[in-house]
TrEMBL record:
GO terms for molecular function: 3-phosphoshikimate 1-carboxyvinyltransferase activity. NCBIfam families: aroA (TIGR01356). PANTHER family: AROM/DEHYDROQUINATE SYNTHASE, PENTAFUNCTIONAL AROM POLYPEPTIDE. Residues 9-425 form the Enolpyruvate transferase domain. InterPro entries: Enolpyruvate_Tfrase_dom, Enolpyruvate_Tfrase_sf, EPSP_synthase, EPSP_synthase_CS, RNA3'P_cycl/enolpyr_Trfase_a/b. The gene is aroA. The active site is at D315 (proton acceptor). Transmembrane segments: none annotated. This is 3-phosphoshikimate 1-carboxyvinyltransferase. GO terms for cellular component: cytoplasm.
Length: 436
């Protein structure tokens, strides 16, 4: 049980270089594995999810060494993958699972994927069904869940229309399409994070996105060559401190080299709409956009968020709910049913845990309504991450709003995406206004 910091008197201060982006770290490993030659990854996120990807690729015979946040991959490409000795353990990582389903298409062996109790509940038909249109066979349980078997074989080019807005599904299809003989087209429901497209092009491939931002054309059989990737800071991790600094009086912090890819900055826009004080200074970079973000404490007001806003802040919705709980008025989030199939049912767990602070919050099948309040009243001092990293971190930030001593159950889940979260939070709390 972790005791949480509460009611800092001076707010949060100082500069922080947030850890590498989780989505980009996964993709850098996978691209390094299917490219020829040496790939170096710097500022890699050594969180449990990305380590699941790293170990799975090692089990496929790829040579990978890691020293802290630097990873070196030496590969002869996807054709050199070897049948793993045992089922690959995906741990808690949906991204590892779904992207690997596409990456393993076109091998000449069958691979079994297994996962932890949370991952075993998450839907996989959203990947196996569109992959079937490319001739790729993925067998799941009858419920459409893990364990899954991916049968390597020929990949047939096709045009595939996706009926769920998911970068994981899109990326699996892109990885599989690379193995076909003709170009494929993937049509998204709504634009989602495009790190796979950007990185494949950086490695020498050819992926084109049409002006509608939803139609992706994949040129097959590219010659992918190992690269040097410097992973930008993770907007999804930065977001915890952006919200913390906004809702805790006297705060003034700067987060450096954060990924500013517009498919990921939904939280920044939502907070700004709510009245947050955020200044972004772009930093020059090849490929992904990055910049420094300065956030000062501010008074917030309610907003509405609907389906079209969701993909760009999908993982930050627990934080939007927290910001809304501190804002004037009632915030309505709709079109967010995807939250029900994340590490936990994040609509239910966010509502359950924020109610422990006395917040008036209503659940809907596809979202939440949160009535903001300046007077929080703790009704239960034992918070629970429910083994969901993002919920755990959101609750640690929420705790800063109250004076009551609070504990967090299942705090270790935070290592899935941010192993040093509590150390970094402590740093920002220790810095004083004058002595940054
Ligand atoms: O592609 C990715 O790296 C991710 C995509 C999102 O999932 P979906 O594609 O299922 O929405 C997100 O929630 C997840 O944390 C990472
Ligand atoms: C949903 C998440 O990750 P994944 O789908 O990779 O488990 C997340 O990091 O919030």
């Amino acid at each position: 049980m972790k005791t949480l910091a509460t009611a800092p008197t001076q707010g949060l201060h100082g500069k922080l270089d947030v850890p590498g982006d989780k989505s980009i770290s996964h993709r850098a490993l996978m691209l390094g594995a299917i490219a020829q030659g040496k790939t170096t990854i710097d500022h890699f996120l050594a969180g449990e999810d990305c380590l699941s990807t790293l170990e799975a690729l090692r089990a496929l015979g790829v040579e990978i060494t890691r020293t802290n946040t630097t990873v070196i991959i030496r590969s002869a490409g996807r054709s050199a993958f070897k049948k793993p000795q045992k089922p690959l353990d995906m741990g808690n990582s949906g991204t590892t699972t779904r992207l690997l389903m596409g990456l393993l298409a076109g091998t000449n062996f069958t691979t079994t994927l297994v996962g932890d109790s949370s991952l075993q509940k998450r839907p996989m038909r959203r990947v196996s069904e569109p992959l079937a249109k490319l001739g790729v066979r993925v067998e799941t349980t009858e419920q459409g869940t893990l364990p899954a078997k991916i049968y390597g074989g020929e990949v047939r080019a096709s045009t595939v229309k996706l009926n769920v807005a998911s970068a994981q599904v899109k990326s699996a299809l892109i990885f599989a399409s690379l193995m076909a003989d003709e170009p494929s087209q993937i049509i998204e429901k709504l634009p989602t994070r495009n790190h796979t497209e950007i990185m494949i092009n950086q490695f020498g491939g050819q992926i084109k996105t049409a002006a509608d931002q939803r139609t992706i054309t994949v040129q097959p059989k590219p010659k992918l060559i190992g690269q040097h990737v410097i992973v930008p800071g993770d907007m999804s991790s930065a977001a915890f401190f952006m919200v913390a600094a906004t809702i805790i009086d006297n705060s003034d912090i700067t987060l450096t080299n954060v990924n500013l890819n517009p498919t990921r900055t939904g939280i920044l826009e939502a907070l700004r709409k709510m009245g947050a004080d955020i200044t972004v200074t772009p930093v020059e970079n090849k490929g992904e956009k990055i910049g420094n973000i300065r956030i000062k404490a501010a008074k917030l007001h309610a907003i509405t968020i609907d389906a079209k806003d969701i993909p760009a802040l999908i993982d930050e919705l627990p934080l939007v709910a927290l910001a809304a709980a501190c804002a004037d008025g009632a915030t309505k989030i709709s079109g967010a049913q995807e939250l029900r199939v994340k590490e936990t049912d994040r609509i239910a767990t966010v509502a359950m845990e924020l109610r422990k602070f006395g917040i008036d919050i209503t659940e809907f099948p596809d979202g939440l309504e949160i009535v903001g309040s300046q007077e929080w009243k703790v009704v239960d001092t034992q918070l629970d991450s429910h083994k969901d990293h993002r919920l755990g971190m959101m609750l640690a930030v929420a705790a800063l709003r109250v004076r009551t001593k609070l504990t967090l159950k299942n705090a270790t889940a935070i290592a899935v995406s941010y192993p040093n979260f509590f150390e970094d939070l402590e740093l920002l709390l220790k810095n004083t206004k004058d002595g940054d």
